[in-house]
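2.7 Reproducibility. Because tokenized structures are sensitive to small changes in the input, we list the exact sequence used for Signal recognition particle protein, including any N-terminal residues retained from the expression construct. No trimming or masking was applied before prediction.
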Amino acid sequence: LTDRLSGVFDGLTGKGSLSEKDVSSALREIRVALLEADVALDVVKQFIADIKPKAVGEDVIRSVKPGQQVIKIVNDGLVEMLGGNEEAQGLRIDNIPAVIMMAGLQGSGKTTTTGKLARRLKNHDRKKVLMASLDVYRPAAMHQLKVLGEQIEVDTLPITDGQMPVDIAKRAVNAAKLGGYDVVILDTAGRTTLDEQMMGEAAQVAEFANPAETILVADALTGQDAVETARRFNDRLKLTGLILTRMDGDGRGGAALSMRAVTGLPIKFLGTGEKSDGLEVFDARRIAGRILGQGDVVSLVERAAAELDEEKTKRMAEKMAKGVFDLEDMAEQFRQLQRMGGLGGIMGMMPGAKKAKAAMDSQGLDDKVIKRQEAIILSMTPKERAKPALLNASRKKRVAAGAGVHVSEVNKVLKMHKQMAGMMKKMGKGGMKQMAKAMGA
Ligand code: GDP
Ligand code: MG
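Resulting structure tokens (single pass, no recycling of outputs):
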């Protein structure tokens, strides 16, 4: 994605706000990227349709390129769609004993995840947990859970042959009440494909046990199939959340977005390994980053936005609107640039940076030059900074001596300021590109 998008960046130029054309071309690439990340087509379409009006007309943040800003907007949109702006949702386990029912296809990781949740509830939440396997079709499955329980030191319901799933569920809830357990996790039987008997059985268990949480476990690597599974289970059971397993594999996270979009259910945890500690609390930001593969750009734009102190920006905009842009303002621009890690730091994070860096180098603009120019401004009195016209020959000499430079360097700064002031007045807003031009002149 990074390579493809740097192509888009080359075509975008610094303007006051994001144009329809900028946004459309960037979104075309993002559409392909989302599909490659295994996001379902209808989800991609909806997402692009939602994001476009949000991006068009948005003010361009100084010092980032429009294409990058589109990515930031897309990233924020993904985070929101993944439920990142909701309050953290753990498991609901207030009514004791709380029943957690695990549903999903065979092989999706239900039993493994049952163990992981039990371990977390025990160690992290200090709960007393009972696990029960309702998989009456595969005796090995019941044994698997028992062994798992021994490993993580969590009790399992003793195995009794010849019972129906709903009977085992009843026995488990009773045992939990009698034994003073906080949580019962029911590991239901799965099939390799969606079938009516499995769904009916699960629905029956759910009706009896009235689970506080009914969690669908789905294999992230199965992509579109996982989405279809989620849709079908959600139609039949009152699911309360999702857990995606095999996120340690090389799936790109698109399934997470699709499943969330299709079901509207929160993704609670991610399975990240075969062992019982391979469980992570779902983090929308990380998944959005994984889908976009643009983590660095996103953090760059975030930094740029944060560093441009709102108050200062506003004040400067007001001054500029009145046609005032003094040397103090110019020094402030330099400082902002340096806070962001200097030109080198910013450039290093941008796709397509090499080209831009070469252009700046050819204009003799680097961090050293910027530092020197700032030093010159600092050698002036506040009055001189506010009113550069005061700087006659003798004052210039004094400033040059103070900064340890030749008078011609002082003249350069003044000339640059004049150009920038003129430009700022015209634009009302300054992009880095324009600033760079003025600096090199
Ligand atoms: P169930 O049939 O739904 O109960 O699935 P299991 O819990 O028995 O898991 C099936 C296989 O997937 C086992 O080999 C697990 O070790 C493996 N598995 C489960 N979750 C994960 C995960 O998050 N990452 C990886 N790499 N493997 C997993
Ligand atoms: Mg199982």
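The chain has two domains: 98-289, 308-441.
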